[in-house]
Amino acid sequence: MIFSSLLFLFAFLPVTLALYYLIPGRRARNWVLFVLSLIFYGWGEPVYILVMLASITEAWGFGFLIAKHREGNKRLARTWMTVSLLCNLAALLFFKYANFFIDNLRLIPLLSERLSPIEGLTLPIGISFYTFQIMSYTIDLYRGETDVQRNYVAFGAYVTLFPQLIAGPIVRYRDVDDQLTDRRENLPLFSSGVRRFLIGLGKKVLIGDACSRVYEYAKGTAQFHPTAAAAWMTVIFYTLHIYYDFSGYSDMAIGLGRMFGFRFLENFNYPYISSSITEFWRRWHMSLGTWFKEYVYIPLGGNRAGRLKQYRNIAVVWFLTGFWHGASWNYVLWGVYFGVILMLEKTFLLKALDRIPRIFRHLYALFLIGVGWILFSFTDMAAGWQCFRSLFGFGTEAFATPTVWYEFLHALPLLLIAALGATPLPKRIWDTLCRCDWTAEGALDEKGREIPVKDAPLGTRGRVFGVLTAAGCFGILLLSTAYLVDSTFSPFLYFIF
Amino acid sequence: MKRICNLLTAVLFAAFLFVCGAAFVLLPDQGFSAEENRVLAQFPAFTWGRLADGSFSSGINDYFADQFPVRDLFVGIKGVSETVLLRGENNGVLLGKDGQLAVRRFRVYKSRLVQTDDMDYYYENTVKRNVEAIRQYAETNGMETVVVLPPRTVDVCADAFSYPGEITESLHGAFSELEDTGYIDLLPLFREKYGAGEYVYYRGDHHWTALGAYYAYREIMTAFGMEADILPRESFSLEEVPDFYGTTWSRAGYKFVGPDVLTIPTTGHEDELETTCLSIQAVKGEDGKQRRELLPYKTFDGWLVRDYLTEKDKYGAFLDGTHLVQTVFSKTGERERLLVIKDSFANTLVPYLSAHFDLVIVNLAEGEEDASRYAEQFGTTRALIVYNWENMITNINPAGLR
């Protein structure tokens, strides 16, 4: 199930909210979350509930062994951690990467006859996310940064928690361990969650999906009449689409979490205002970056083991980052691409960039990000290469056809709204008008500490805008529902032909 | 005050979720959507097997989407919102001057298996093959043949939109290949009439009006060398049926655009005609063997079925909607027989043509490609192909014409 569906909004969510708040007690509520999250998860592919339960049970069980030995016999604890991690990764490797490896091994002449792809293997949804979440528990437990979770349901609820199950953020166990057994639901947090959820819903349904349609169109025209304008539109609207889609999903996750008393770390921080790729990756999908830094980069020695090793570590991390996004070479290439740029920036580029005007730094970053999205979005790398060449007019028929130009002009309002919305400006203006930040309740700083909410008087303007905020949120909900209904409205009209 | 705002947010949110959810449960399920012209999904049958393979839950997804309360209202809200955003179109339908609508995006065919999502460019090869097949058929069928390709609304009503004429021009060029084979180029004529403010195409339906069809009829008769027989406009009285919400209107979701008036030309002699719908059925002969024969399964007087006029699909009143093969014959005596190979645009031509000919109508758009069989069986002496531009780019049926 996905958040931006009518079934989730008008059946699953109301039922879950009702059950959750009608049933008192922390343990019972965790049960509600656990069971309903499993239904949420298994909606499309019920069989994979078993895969997930196996992963949960394994990590939970080995957790006792790790905790038991970590003080005394460190080596034994380390062995149990390794076993647990391997079990966990095995599921990910099998379901996500098995056929990729087989397909590539088949390129070797001797093996092409003997190997055949495993049929009927579909990727269990969210497995990349929840595998990493589970690993954070196992590793932190070994390191002594968190305590063993004895309660199976509480641990199960952490892994399956439907808000962040499918598309993150990747919540580290130690960031929520206290919340699992001791969290407070209250009105300010709930309302803040509702607002955050609706902003995310609007970002995804109203802007992200609209950008996606322009992107699909522009990309589609290339097979009829390749033009530079269409190539630029492909890149620009994909860049916007993926941001609104992904960050919108994270907003919804964070908002839903708050509705149930959870506080999650932020996952996006206006990535497109970055002035370098180094900065971009501190603002984009932060929970993934943190995870790799914490559990791969630093254990490998990070930047404390000399220049050469540091570059090796960067290379490893970015190869894995790319590979994590999908079992296909274009994702690997995408990761390596950023790895190389990051190394270059570390060596000299950042210093050089400091000397040029700010605007050029932003253009530099945006251009490289956009080119990255070409690598990312074209699984057919030949088509991706043609799109890249088209940007500069190679292999195109014209700069633009009249029809492509027409499409661009009519997508311009959307482009402006989407571009502006990717900066902190709208929020800053709205918060000033409101004399407060209506989504501040439940927000955490980078370290995961609660940010105290300032309780300044609203004044008349603040009161008016407070009501407007509520009305606006409702408007987004209404409008998003309209767009979702419309997308299921599929007239079958041509029978009278 | 903060508390009130918080309360307001939470209550509005929860209330909307619960009210819509409850309405979904309480309102009775709909069977058929006239707006979308399709049967809506019903609650799926439960079996453990279907649950395990996920088809039960995907059935629930469809059921929930199709039976969602007040869908029309929400569809309308989206139409308004897209207009406010200056998008100029909704669901691939352009919104032009005076509420003129026109489909811009089509699902175009590369082959029977490959079709794109909604796109305005088309596969030149598909069109080339269709044109070539029509040309070949027209040259070899042994009958005097006229080819009419009605343009799309977006081609005829170009003045109403700022949409570029690039694709219209390239299609127009592609069809000029047919010039030597009885092809009538209708685009300049219809553009001129539309420009002069005449109601030749519907605003919310993709078909031409009775008036538009009349102009086409005149051109067809001229091409057949029967100018002298053309009946003047006054010979037909136009019956007007208000509140015609056509296919384009339904797809557009612009609920603020008003309906069309469906126009039906009549001569008063309709009861002298009889329409028969035919299909090939398996019959057991006297020798006990199975044979396939062309047999009637429905017959009615005239060509108009009035029941449709009170429903949404009013255009279906012409010839009772979609049938694979039909004849419109005079009851009083035999006349020259005309083979009409067509899509639905021809349905509005029938009132005019049936004043001169007995018609044998073969629905190419629905996939009946073997026209020769019917020409032979009924002894037709002339042939008319009516196939509109949209069908020329979105399907490959003409390529199979024989």
Task: Provide a compact summary of the structure.
The complex is a heterodimer of chains A (497) and B (402). Chain A is mainly alpha-helical. Chain A has helices at 6-22, 26-42, 48-69, 74-105, 109-112, 127-143, 152-160, 162-165, 173-181, 187-221, 228-259, 277-283, 286-297, 307-325, 329-354, 358-377, 381-391, 402-421, 425-434, 459-488.
Which features does this protein show?
heterodimer, A: 497 residues, mainly alpha, 2 domains, 71% helix, B: 402 residues, alpha/beta, eight-stranded mixed sheet, three-stranded antiparallel sheet, 17 strands, 33% helix, 22% strand, globular
Instruction: Look at the structure and give the mean pLDDT of chain B.
Output: 90
Q: What is the quaternary state of this protein? A: heterodimer
Poorly predicted parts of chain A: 493-497
- Counting DSSP H or I runs of 4 or more residues, the number of helices of chain A is 20
Strand percentage of chain B lies at 15-25%
Largest sheet of chain A: none
Q: How far do the termini of chain B sit from each other?
A: 77 Å
Could you please describe the fold and organization of this structure?
The complex is a heterodimer of chains A (497) and B (402). Chain A is mainly alpha-helical. Chain A has two domains: 6-105 and 120-183, no CATH class; 189-421, no CATH class. Helix content of chain A is 71%, strand content 0%. Chain A has helices at 6-22, 26-42, 48-69, 74-105, 109-112, 127-143, 152-160, 162-165, 173-181, 187-221, 228-259, 277-283, 286-297, 307-325, 329-354, 358-377, 381-391, 402-421, 425-434, 459-488. In chain A, helix 1 (6-22) runs antiparallel to helix 2 and helix 16 runs antiparallel to helix 17. With 402 residues, chain B is an alpha/beta fold. Chain B folds into two domains: 2-69, no CATH class; 99-400, no CATH class. Chain B contains 13 helices and 17 strands. Chain B has helices at residues 2-26, 48-52, 55-66, 71-84, 124-140, 153-156, 166-175, 187-195, 210-223, 247-252, 350-353, 371-378, 389-394, and strands spanning 32-33, 38-39, 89-90, 93-95, 101-103, 106-109, 115-119, 144-148, 183-184, 237-244, 260-266, 273-284, 290-301, 325-330, 337-342, 358-363, 382-386. An eight-stranded mixed β-sheet of chain B has the order 9-8-17-15-16-14-12-13. In chain B, strands 3-4-5 form a three-stranded antiparallel β-sheet. Chain B has a two-stranded antiparallel sheet with strand order 1-2. The mean pLDDT of chain B is 90. The chains are: A mainly alpha (497), B alpha/beta (402). The interface between A and B is large, with 70 and 73 residues.
